[in-house]
Amino acid sequence: MARHIKCGKLFTGLDRGAEEQQTLVIDGEIIKFVGPSAEAPKPAPNDEVIDHSGHFVLPGLIDMHVHLSYGNAKTEEDIDLYASLEFRALRGLEAAQRVLAAGFTTIADPTTSGRVSLAIRDAIDAGLFVGPRISSSGRQITNRQGLSDWYPSWIGVPETSIGVLCRDASEGIAEIRLEVKDGVDFIKIAIDGDSMNPSSDVLVAGYDQDEISAMVKEAHRLGKKVVVHARGAEGVLYSARAKADIIFHAAWMGDEGLEAVIENGCALCPTLSLVVNDIDFTRPGDGCFPDFPDAHKRELEAACISLPKAREAGVKFMLGSDSGFAVTPYGEWHARELEHYVNYLGFSPAEALKCATVNNGEFVREAGQVGLLEAGRLADILVIDGDPLADISVLQDRSRIREIIQGGDTVEVEINKNARRLRSEFSYELWSDIYTQERIKEIGLVSGLAQRAAE
Ligand SMILES: [Zn+2]
């Protein structure tokens, strides 16, 4: 039994924008026909005809940057220390379902703790649970000046951290070989730190050119692509020269870095969501206010200068949301990244959509099978009420989703509204203030105390 879908508007991902009067025919998990309804094969008596003539049909969206193991973390400690790896896997599976329900039929997870996201991937592959198609790295490889070495030196990076400290190329290569043995889909290296950069005053690269080149070369020799986290000029330059496949962030990429990106055919995946959501959502009372939003304002400013240059130079952009933090919770803001591409980087809605479908589809495990609606590919399809080419933000409105099809089947995933967070998932912060006599006076508690004493 084939499924014939009549599309109001169809965005295939090919360079034709949205077309009207189109029909998609799916047989099993594969697309058999895409084209004008007048040329479509006639439905056989048993075939199902689905009328989406009032809707917009596009490829299932792909998010390149979802951290399933983080658990909507409020602190770095939440990510690394709280909740067992086993609990993180079960929690991450539910998170994956939330992402799927938001219209993202495929994701990549660049950094997980233990083998959490690999286990979620395998459980979905095995048909045990509904979920998005997942490509995952292992723990991220990093050095003293990189992302995951923010612990005091007298503590060190714990085993349950999302990062693994590799102090030179030979340690990095040993870790790459282990991760490949354990079944990762790609390798993640954090060559530098974040906007606040607690381990250094400037965003220096944690590996020199020879070290990063040797690690990328080994990953490629073993058949794995490499994603590098690089915010600073040096990190981007070294990563590009090392021929990393994708560079995440890249806000402070200089002209030399951009040249190397172009010359070596690297793709960029800026991931503005964490930055912009932090600026937009963080409030006084949040532990990182105002330092982190302020740092992110500087990063966004830099990104708005460096990244449009890369876009104009024809660099390939991928798209991801960095979901898994408290400001980027699962299933909520993934499609907002497309709006950021339009608002901040000068992309047209169609170009942003191509990043989230065609371009992302070239990186994941199912490369060549997803991200584009054409005959022979997997039938991963999103149907919405609205026109994202007129208003890209409609993709964020889950009430507009009319159907999600994955591998030819309509996705039925029920998000449990009673899901709640356990105290044991969070770091053990007791108070956010220090209550000296002066502070108690300042916040006006003194009169209240006096009143209670009088009672
Ligand atoms: Zn990330």
What would you say this structure looks like, in words?
This protein has 455 residues and is α/β, with parallel strands linked by helices. The protein has 13 helices and 16 strands. It has a domain at 61-334: Metal-dependent hydrolases (TIM Barrel, Alpha-Beta Barrel), CATH 3.20.20.140. Helix 4 (169-181) packs parallel to helix 5 and helix 8 (273-281) packs antiparallel against helix 9 (291-312). The chain is globular and about 80 Å long.
Protein traits:
alpha/beta; single chain; binds zinc ion; TIM Barrel; 16 strands; globular; 6-stranded parallel beta sheet; 455 residues
> Which homologous superfamily in CATH is the superfamily of the domain at 61-334?
Metal-dependent hydrolases
Identify the strand order in the major beta sheet: 3-2-1-4-14-15-16
Ligands in the structure?
A: zinc ion
Number of strands: 16
The count of helical stretches stands at 13
Mean pLDDT: 95
Major beta sheet summary: 7 strands, mixed
Q: Helices and strands: which structural class? A: alpha/beta
- Regions with little confidence, pLDDT below 50 for 5+ residues: none
Q: From the coordinates shown, what is the CATH architecture of the domain at 61-334?
A: Alpha-Beta Barrel
Using the alpha-carbon principal axes, give the shape. Answer: globular
CATH class descriptor of the domain at 61-334: Alpha Beta
The SSE order reads EEEEEHHEHEEEHEHEHEHEHHHHEEEHH
- What portion of residues belong to β-strands? 15-25%
First CA to last CA: what distance? 78 Å
